[in-house]
Amino acid sequence: MSFVGSYIRTSVLTKIDSYRNSVLDCRASVELAKLGLKFLPWTVSAMRPSAVVSLVNEILINKRRTIVEFGSGISTLYLSKAAEMVGGTVISIEDDPDWASLVSDMLKAEGLSHVAQVLVVGLRDCIYSLDGSVWYDPEMVSRAIAGSKVDLVVVDGPRAHTRDLAHARYPALPVVLPHLSPRCAIVLDDIGRSGEQHIVNKWEADSGLKFDRLAARGGYAIARREAYFVSSI
């Protein structure tokens, strides 16, 4: 195939994928609206609706009751609403105090403060960090989840959108690993980026977990332990 032909084919496939993703996100937005939350201001860094609805499904059908999230936002509201439906709780770790306050206010407005708490945890050096990047204070994180058997971990922070921060989210799994329940799920968002792809590969090599990479269905990767049901759009 010529260079021009290859370029055209790639462009067409890219547009088809973009259209498919838009359709999935539209459908997911309709499903999420059924949870009855008020209007929520989506940001450019928020998880895609199709990823969020998949996490809601994961919580409901697999009864994920103890949930830890790295990086708070719109997803925190939806995770908390689903957790409330199964008698669960959410701990969301956030490094930005102002953003944490905003998310906490939204949780309060939705009557979900009894389900979720947003903890402000500063970024610092971590023994598990790659490339000298910083991560949430691991001692504070460990204290926050001490005694818990975590059923679901959602990794969507800290910020990792630049080359020097590409591997900033790696420490999440080694830090929470001792606290995971025998039957759990681990999710990493933004799997379309090379940094997150490298992280997933290293997580698999280090832990023996197997991740499903769903770049075209929400842009996340997920690994599960033991028996589980699968339900997504």
From TrEMBL:
Q: What Pfam families would the database entry show?
A: Methyltransf_24
Q: What InterPro entries does its record include?
A: SAM-dependent_MTases_sf
- SUPFAM superfamilies per the record? S-adenosyl-L-methionine-dependent methyltransferases (SSF53335)
Give the top-rank taxon of the lineage listed in the UniProt record for this protein: Bacteria
Q: What is this protein called?
A: Uncharacterized protein
Species of provenance = Mesorhizobium delmotii
